[in-house]
Design a protein that fits this description.
Elements lengths: L3 H4 L3 E5 L4 H11 L5 H7 L12 E8 L5 E8 L9 E8 L8 H15 L3 E7 L3 H8 L3 E11 L12 E5 L7 H13 L13 H8 L5 E5 L5 E7 L6 E8 L7 H15 L4 E7 L4 H10 E12 L2
Helix pairs in contact: 8-9
Length: 305
């Protein structure tokens, strides 16, 4: 079996081309992106940058023929578990896979990162060959994110004691509803949830720039149990961001059911798309998964610390 040391001499690593046609030719050699994780990874490929958002990308070429063999790159993004983590992407031309080129490319990328005090973080479809490839090379699970499609009209009504509020946009929503939305964001500020912070005028103005209906579930004591923001212009397939304000709410399943029922009543949509991560809590995720008609994306994030 060939080792990384055996393969590395047969490869050259060139800076990402500034010429758009040359860059397009490299991407064309890779073929169509097979999934969302690959599409997102390719967005990292650009010229070198330094500063707060370091970025590197290299074209991997066959030393003998000069033909593209793959790509490697990384970019620093906010919100990762540790400051030294950067989003990395390694991709080999399909016909050249299973030959050790990916491991050699990762080793080259890791050396570049090490010189800058950085470590790789990456994404792959859960259970895919890319996921197994990362796991075999010392990457550890950090987070799983799934996008579910649900048909709210098909979900049986669930009894609840919430007062449901429908607001045509942030401009018309009461302050405590907007504060609940910000609390929802703070509680899911992965990987480190932040303490609740007051809704500033700047934050409110940001959300008021566009028309986005929102729905809230209010408890009998007046507090907001659940909140949901919808597409700017709802259509047949609309995004719904939200859920229980507190991801640990023991009534999270009921809160989500109440929000979905309100969407079914107020919106002429066939389905809603909900993106849920590990931080949503098993109760909420299991309820949505049980009623989903499709899973559009199932991605795992892994890091090598």
């Amino acid at each position: 079996m060939r080792t990384t040391d055996d393969v590395a001499p047969s490869l050259t690593f060139e800076p990402w081309p500034d010429d758009e046609e040359m860059a397009s030719a490299v991407l064309a050699a890779l073929g169509p992106a097979g999934d969302m994780a690959v599409s997102q990874g390719r967005l990292l490929l650009r010229g070198d940058l330094d500063g707060d958002v370091p970025c590197r990308a290299r074209v991997v070429r066959d030393s003998a023929t000069g033909e593209p063999a793959g790509v490697v790159g990384f970019r620093r993004l906010p919100g990762l578990l540790e400051e030294r983590l950067v989003w990395a992407h390694v991709e080999i031309v399909p016909r050249l896979r299973e030959r050790g080129l990916g491991s050699a490319a990762l080793a080259h990328l890791t050396r570049m990162m090490s010189d800058m005090g950085l470590s790789p973080w990456g994404k792959a479809v859960t259970g895919s060959p890319a996921h197994r490839w990362m796991t075999d090379r010392g990457f550890h699970h950090q987070r799983r994110i799934r996008t579910f499609r649900v048909r709210p009209q098909a979900i049986a009504p669930v009894e609840h004691g919430y007062a449901i509020e429908w607001h045509e946009g942030p401009t018309w929503a009461p302050d405590d509803v907007m504060q609940a939305w910000w609390d929802w964001i703070d509680a899911r500020n992965w990987p480190h949830p932040t303490p609740p912070t007051p809704m500033s005028q700047e934050r409110r103005a940001f959300h008021c720039e566009s028309y986005s209906p929102l729905v809230a579930a209010r408890r009998p004591d007046g507090t907001i149990a659940g909140i949901g923001f919808l597409d700017e212009f709802p259509g047949d397939d609309s995004d719904l961001s939200g859920g229980p304000v507190d991801p640990a709410d023991p009534d999270g399943r009921t809160v989500v059911a109440a929000l979905l029922a309100a969407c079914a009543e107020h919106l002429p949509v066939r389905s809603l798309l909900l993106e849920l991560g590990d931080d949503e809590g098993d109760d909420v995720v299991s309820f949505v998964a049980d009623h989903a008609v499709d899973v559009l994306d199932d991605t795992v994030a892994c890091a090598r610390l």
